[in-house]
Amino acid sequence: MPFNRSVIFYRVAERIVPLMTFLMITMPVWLSFFHPAVAAYLIMAYLLYFIYKSIKTIYFAGVSFKIMQEAKQIDWHERMQQVGHSDNVYHVVMIVNCKESFEKVSKTLEKLVKQSFDPKEVIVVLAMEELEGEPAKTRAGQLICKYKTEFRDLFTTFHPLKPGEEIGKASNAAYAGKIIDKYFQDKKIDRKNILVTVCDADSQLPHHYLSYLTYEFLRDESRQYHFYWAPVLLYNHFWQLWLPVRIQMILSSVLRLSFLSMKDDLIQISTYSTSLWLLHSVGFWDVDIIPEDWHIQLQAFFAHGDKIRTIPIYLPIVRDGVRAEGFINTFKSRYAQERRWAWGITDIPYALVRAFETPQIPWIIKLKKIGFLIEIHLFWPTSFFLLTLSASIPSLVNPAFGRTVLGFLLPKFSSFILTISSLMLIAILYFDYHVRRQIKIKTDWKNIPLLIVQWYLLPVISFFLSSLPALDAHTRILLGKKIDYKPTKKI
C-alpha cells in the first residue's frame, strides 16, 4: 500500500473482525455454560437489531423506489441543458474487462451509443489485461473497428501485472486511469472537468445516465469530492438464472435500492463515476487489493476527510446475474463471487492503520466510518447462525436454564421476530416486481407460483451462498491465506 505501516499492528487489526465473527457464532454455546441469561439477552438484542435493520431497509427501499419512479419520467438531457456549461464536462467511460466475450462488451457499448448525452462527446477506454494475450488483442481490434466512429475516442489499455499487484479490477483500473490522466494532460485539459465512469463489462447504463450524471455534477458545489452511483441491479437474464442465484439477486437488488437513499452511509458498488481530479489526488486505485469500490472511497476519505460523499443517481444500471454451464458450475462461481465480495473485510485493517496516520480528520468521523465497515462485515457471516440456531442453544447446553421463564420465552421471541421478518418478503416481492417492470423484464402468470414458493429455500440459500463464503473469507484471513481473483462466469 502507498503508506508505511506497522506490520504487527496491521496483522493484529486484520484479525479483529474474523475473531469477533467466531466469538459471536459460538457465543450461545460457551457463554451458556456459565451465564445463560447473558447469552439469552445478547441473542435477543441481536434479534431486535435485525428487525430494526429489516424495517429500515424496507423503508428506504420504498423511498428510493418512489424517487426512481419520478426520475424515470424526467427528460434529464433537457434538464442538463437548462443548467448550462455541459460542454465543459468531458466524459470517460472505462470498461474494465478480462476474458469477456465480444458480444457482452458490445451490448455495453450499444447502451453507450444510445445515450441521450451525445456519444460523440464520450471517450471510451477498454481496460484489459495483458496476461490474457492474443485473444484480448483480437477482441479489442474487433470492438474498435465496430465502434470507433461512434464516440469521440475509443482506445484500449493492456495492464501488465507487476510484482506486488493483485490481479483484478483495482490494478487494471489504476493502470488505465494513469493513461487516461496522461491523455488529458497532453491536451492540457483540467482534471476537475473530467468525469470518469468505471464500468464492468456487463454494465448496461440507462438511456439518460450520462445526462443525469452531468446534471448532478454541474449543480454540485462540492463535485470534486464526490462519487456518483446508480443502483446496480443484477437482473439481466433474470428468468434464465438458477433459482438460488435468482433469489439472491432479488435480495441484493432491493438492498442496493435501499442503500441509495441512506445518503450518509452510501458507498458506491461496482459501477460508479467520479472526477479525474479526485482519482489523481489519491494516486488512483491501490493495486494490492481485490474489491476496489469501497476501498477507493476509503482512500479518498483518508485523503480529504468527510467532504467525501457518494451522490445517488436514481436510474437503475442492469448487470448480469451469475450463470455458468450447469447448476454446479453456477453454484461454484456464485460462491466464489460472494467470497470475493466478503474479502472486502481487508478494508478494515487498512482503515484502522490510516486512522492513526490522519490526525487532521476528527476521530469521531473516522470511528463512524470504521464502525460501519465492521457492522457490515461482522453480521454478514454471523446472521444465519444467530437467526436460525442461537435461540435454541442455551437450553440445550444448560437444561436448567430451559426451565426458567427466560429460557422458555427465548425461542418463542426468536420465532416471533422471524415471522415478522418473513412478512417483509411481501414488500420485497412488490419492489422486485415493479423495478423489473421498469427495466422491461416481464413476469408471466406461470412464474408467479415459483416467485412465492422459492422463498422457502431462503435459509438454505443464505447459508451456502452468503454466510458460508463470508465465513470462508474470514477464516482465510485468520490463517494468513489469500484468495485468487477469478472473473465471474456469466454466459
Task: List key phrases describing it.
491 residues; alpha/beta; Spore Coat Polysaccharide Biosynthesis Protein SpsA, Chain A; seven-stranded mixed β-sheet; two-stranded parallel sheet; globular; membrane
CATH architecture of the largest domain: Alpha-Beta Complex
- Low-confidence region ranges: 1-5
Number of helices: 19
Report the mean per-residue pLDDT as an integer: 93
Shape: globular
- Calculate the terminal CA-CA distance, rounded to whole Å: 35 Å
What would the CATH topology of the largest domain be? Spore Coat Polysaccharide Biosynthesis Protein SpsA, Chain A
Give the biggest beta sheet: 7 strands, mixed
CATH class of the largest domain: Alpha Beta
Strand element count: 9
- Percent strand equals 5-15%
CATH superfamily of the largest domain: Spore Coat Polysaccharide Biosynthesis Protein SpsA, Chain A
CA-atom Rg in angstroms: 23 Å
Main sheet: strand order: 3-2-1-4-7-5-8
Order of helices and strands: HHHEHEHEHEHEEHEHHEEHHHHHHHHH
InterPro entries: Glyco_trans_2-like (IPR001173), Nucleotide-diphossugar_trans (IPR029044)
Domain Glycosyltransferase 2-like: 196-429
Keywords: Membrane, Transmembrane, Transmembrane helix
Protein name: Glycosyltransferase 2-like domain-containing protein
Can you describe what's shown?
The protein has helices at residues 7-34, 36-71, 76-83, 102-113, 134-147, 169-186, 209-219, 243-261, 276-281, 293-304, 326-342, 347-356, 363-388, 393-397, 399-402, 405-423, 425-438, 448-453, 458-479; strands spanning 90-96, 122-129, 153-159, 194-200, 226-229, 232-236, 272-275, 309-312, 317-320. The strands form two sheets. A seven-stranded mixed beta sheet has the order 3-2-1-4-7-5-8, sandwiched between helices. Helix 1 packs across helix 2 and helix 2 (36-71) runs parallel beside helix 17 (425-438). It is an alpha/beta fold and 491 residues long. The two termini are 35 Å apart. The chain folds into two domains: 7-64 and 367-479, no CATH class; 75-230 and 271-321, Spore Coat Polysaccharide Biosynthesis Protein SpsA, Chain A, CATH 3.90.550.10. The chain crosses the membrane at residues 33-52, 370-393, 413-431, 452-471.
